[in-house]
Amino acid sequence: MAFEGLAERLQAVMQRLRGKGKVTEADVKEAMREVRLALLEADVNFKVVKTFINRVKERAVGQEVLKSLTPGQQVIKVVNEELTELMGGEQSKLVKSNRPPTVIMMVGLQGAGKTTTSGKLARYLSKQNHHPLLVAADVYRPAAIRQLQVLGEQLDTPVFSLGEKEDPVKIAEQGVAYAKEHHHDYVIIDTAGRLHIDETMMEELKAIREKVQPDEVLLVVDAMTGQDAVNVAESFNKKLGLTGVVLTKLDGDTRGGAALSVKAVTNCPIKFVGMGEKTDALEPFFPDRMASRILGMGDVLTLIEKAQAAVDAEKARDLERKMRTQTFTLEDFLDQLQQVRKMGPLEDMLAMLPGAGQIKQLKNFKVDEKQIARVEAIIRSMTKEEKLHPEIINASRRKRIAKGSGTTVQDVNRLLKQFEDMKKMMKQFSSMAKMAKKKKRGFRFPFMS
Amino acid sequence: MSFFKRLKEKVAQKTESVTQKFISGLSKTSTSFVGAISDLFSGRSKIDEELFEELEEILISADVGVTTTMELVERLRQEVKERKIKEPSELQPLLSEIISDMLELEGKSNQLQMNPDGMTVILFVGVNGVGKTTTIGKLAHRFKNEGKKVVLAAGDTFRAGAIEQLEVWGQRVGVDVIKHQAGADPAAVIYDGIQAAKSRKADVLLCDTAGRLQNKVNLMEELKKVHRVIQREIPDAPHEVLLVLDATTGQNAMMQAKTFGEAVNVSGIVLTKLDGTAKGGIVIAISNELQVPVKLVGLGEKPDDLQEFDPAQFVHALFKDAINKEEELEQSVGE
Ligand SMILES: Nc1nc2c(ncn2[C@@H]2O[C@H](COP(=O)(O)OP(=O)(O)OP(=O)(O)O)[C@@H](O)[C@H]2O)c(=O)[nH]1
Ligand SMILES: [Mg+2]
């Protein structure tokens, strides 16, 4: 999960402070050193780290903290506040022009994810009943136009293109004109990736900007970017005047310190984050949530929203009925597994729970994704009959299933046993609410090791 | 002979054009190549804490990472003590030596390993957008110019337009591309690629794969399958598994190298986009800790923009304009 390591590091430091009644200047210094290292390891630019540490230190050794009754908590609060502040304070929405169409221009380095993000934005806008037009202005990268067209087809969003022989400035201009004519209320211009130091190419962007007067100029930044993020963001900002940032590939395991760096040098809000390769994997960026997440304070809101978005309400009702009536099959089980997975890696979700970082058992708890894959493979290797009536799975069937799924008979045995246990458990939860109140032990999926 | 002198000689041995290309790719400023070496610590009268700190910052800002930076500076401190070094100007060659040492691995070449008797198969892997497909295009161009018969396999069946992208490169450099439809099983494409390359008596088969983040277990499993197919079809293959890394990437590159390494036994690294301002310092840590050599560097988007990795040149580039850059940054970030 993004920022995971940072959260852990800060927590370790803060834990020490928390135990103390009184914070000395030396304590603060020690804590700040840890914070500095953690931020550097998270790829926050070292200049940004310096500024940040200085600000926190000033406040932390100030009256505010030293005189407070709970100085440890006070330091945490200061770090949290400053972090939130640095990341943008409040959530920032997409600008909407009062003279449509709203023109959005996507810019960034090669491979940052502009085209994919353009597609995601189109989908995002369409879901809100807007009618976006995609404009293919990357005439350089081989098949870039094709890529956008495929996305457009998938999303049922028109793509404006003049091929790869035309000048991108002209493409952008005509694209916007086309949008006006055809009553598109949003235009998303996908430009070619370029280096911030490539003068000619930067001039091209500037020309596009002047021609079409976009309402948003969004810099697309790879969340894995290192120290150079400041140089990139600064150049693009100086040349074009950015209005916002999209942080991509945050579904990876990068800590994402570039987010802090980019924010610090451009002072532009991060408007969205990319959380996957599919077109629905675009989420708004919430600075406060992200800061809380960094500090291990949990992100219950995101968790709830994710769960709601992923779990199909009808399926959930269906599942509930099956549990009650004891007709839950391996097929349902697989289905459920897939729903859970749609919410994202389980570890991410656990990390979002408040206090999850502190619970000892969870510390060493690792959801074994390989195990999930194995379970999936096993169930997929069963016949329909077997899935509905697992009791018919005898030794020779077990052998066949193991072979078909590339697992061992023991793996198959284990899964079947766990499935049986689970069914037994379900019997007990005729009332789930009661169970939740009474029991801490909870429910174990077979893929939890 | 001092390291500094050796370095100069090494560079001089290269043909003028190659060096020139490397320099112009690595730096958009016009400071002379050799001159830049000594620039770093000039103007300093003594070796003190401040100097070490500044050095630390330069390394960190080049994405070398905290751990390796500490290690480097610590080693430098020791050498300074042992060798009783007083002049700041002597630090640079010393540091270059230490870093080059980390980049040149024993028993592991910084050059591509070609199959001496038969077809060479190279598998390209990496996260999204790092430059896998482009590197394949460039490398195909190079092999073609060497008179080799090259076949490309379009193993990225997932990303929209990926197959077409490789096809354009195929046409551009004049080599065959084996493909299936979008959404097809990548292992099947690679299998066909191998058969086609065999029957066409190709010298080199370059296999493209879809970009994937290393924490996606399913996708890594898919990649393993592709790897297994190659191993099964040709003993000793793949002869190289190249992890493509974007020089702009920070510390996550280490995770990439670890995870891809475990999954498909990465044999070398291609460091792309070194024509930007990012230094790609993380490869020092990767090379040092994981013992994976860097083999190629990408210096642009054109077919010619691919060079063999040269540790000495890389080290120079690392320090080049570090000071200028810092000053500029100071003004923009500081408040
Ligand atoms: N400046 C520069 N750009 C590069 C270099 N190598 C690749 N690129 C560009 O980076 C972008 C992404 O390159 P691709 O080759 O498509 O990357 P990929 O790893 O195949 O990407 P996916 O298949 O989408 O994962 C393209 O715009 C390339 O032109 C390089 O060395 N320098
Ligand atoms: Mg590709």
TrEMBL record, chain A:
Reactions performed catalytically: GTP + H2O = GDP + phosphate + H(+)
Function, in words: Involved in targeting and insertion of nascent membrane proteins into the cytoplasmic membrane. Binds to the hydrophobic signal sequence of the ribosome-nascent chain (RNC) as it emerges from the ribosomes. The SRP-RNC complex is then targeted to the cytoplasmic membrane where it interacts with the SRP receptor FtsY.
Superkingdom assignment: Bacteria
GO cellular component: signal recognition particle
Positions of the SRP54-type proteins GTP-binding domain: 269-282
Protein name, per record: Signal recognition particle protein
Main location: cytoplasm
InterPro entries: AAA+_ATPase, P-loop_NTPase, Signal_recog_part_SRP54_M_sf, Signal_recog_particl_SRP54_hlx, Signal_recog_particle_SRP54_M, SRP, SRP54, SRP54_GTPase_dom
Organism the protein comes from: Thermoflavimicrobium dichotomicum
Keywords: Cytoplasm, GTP-binding, Hydrolase, Nucleotide-binding, Ribonucleoprotein, RNA-binding, Signal recognition particle
UniProtKB/TrEMBL annotation, chain B:
Taxonomic superkingdom: Bacteria
Catalyzed reactions per annotation: GTP + H2O = GDP + phosphate + H(+)
Membrane-protein topology: Peripheral membrane protein
EC number: 3.6.5.4
GO cellular component: cytoplasm; plasma membrane
GO molecular-function term, one example from the UniProt record: GTPase activity
UniProt keywords, alphabetically: Cell membrane, Cytoplasm, GTP-binding, Hydrolase, Membrane, Nucleotide-binding, Receptor
Location(s) in or outside the cell: Cell membrane; Cytoplasm
GO biological process: SRP-dependent cotranslational protein targeting to membrane
Database matches in PROSITE patterns: SRP54 (PS00300)
CDD domains (UniProt xref): FtsY (cd17874)
SRP54-type proteins GTP-binding domain mapped to chain residues: 293-306
Pfam families associated with the record: SRP54, SRP54_N
Broadest EC class assigned to this enzyme: hydrolase
SMART domains found in the cross-reference section: AAA (SM00382), SRP54 (SM00962), SRP54_N (SM00963)
Binding site for GTP: 126-133, 208-212, 272-275
Role this protein plays: Involved in targeting and insertion of nascent membrane proteins into the cytoplasmic membrane. Acts as a receptor for the complex formed by the signal recognition particle (SRP) and the ribosome-nascent chain (RNC).
The protein's assembly and partners: Part of the signal recognition particle protein translocation system, which is composed of SRP and FtsY.
Family named by the database record: Belongs to the GTP-binding SRP family. FtsY subfamily.
Protein name: Signal recognition particle receptor FtsY
